[in-house]
Amino acid sequence: MSSAPAFHIDVADFWNDPYPALARMRAEAPVAFVPELGATLLTRRDDIANMEKRVDVLSSDQPAGLMNRLMGQNMMRKDGAAHTAERNVYAPAIAPAAVAAVWRAEFRAHADRVLSALPDAAQADLIEAFALPLSAECLKSMTGLTNVRYEEMDDWSQAMIEGIANYVGNPEVERRCNEATAAIDAAIDDMLPVVRAKPNPSLLSVMLDAGMPEEHVRANVKLTISGGQNEPRKAIAGTVWALLTHPDQLVMVRRGDATWVHAFDELTRWISPIGMSPRRVAKPWTIDGVDLEPEDRVFLMFGSANRDETHFVDADRFDITRSTTRAIVFGAGPHFCAGAAAARSMVADVALPALFERWPDLRMDGDVRIGGWAFRGLLTMPVAWG
Fold this sequence. Notes:
The protein is an alpha+beta fold. The protein has a single domain, classed as CATH 1.10.630.10.
């Protein structure tokens, strides 16, 4: 059992806004045991950046973890040679070169279709109208599951995200997650003969063509859907909201004093879509005077790292002029997100410029709702245009 001091939270308050509690942890107990989550939390940026590289101490291989149990053991939950072998097959399909050569054009085509289907003037929720369908259509192309509706892709992603963050053991959340993974397996079953007969650049096709065992292919497709829909959807909506509520910074981008990439990078620092990554303690270790014991559960709190006062001045403020090089948005070690280039391109190269070009008068039309701590972002975003 970890010797970390106990730090109690109200789970509902933490879901609504984890940042005040995380700030107190950074100041008072940077390595803290949170009984309500059953885990020891690392909250300072440097501890997280250093320890994420130490897979011999904090292992991603978690046989009893929620992701393994609900989705199958994917490459994110493997270390060493097992992780490297699968990543070497998976990553090139969505690496920067593949994004430039294949996916960016697909993203633009999807954005054009989604925007063209919308009226010239309307009031709508931007997530439902644009962010959700765009990210889901892009994900269908990248995974190779073009046989499903975009609504299904989003439902599956949300169910799995909630399932693997279900540390309070809600049986209904687990049921929805199990239904989603079963539906994904059925969709893969339908597409297997298609991609085997005619290989394509999709992840499903590339992994099968490389000889990855089908069980591993399925687990990695589920991994891709869980994060590949949820995080870009939140990043699109979140960045648009941040720019609309900070109009001076939107002006900076429009006149070329900053870029859409700057806006994306600052949003994902400010409101980290992936707020936490779990680890299993593999051997006795001491961090900041706290002893960790084998099999302890540790949460690397990326959302806290990205607001660490020792690295980011006025960290609670959205500011596209700041340097985000010290942010931990996509990870900091061997498990650095393989889809980072695809996400950045989808949002910054395609979604943001396409949206603001189509609707230069886009404006807020009500209050947003934001939630989550393991995975965080906008839940609603009422807007108007035209």
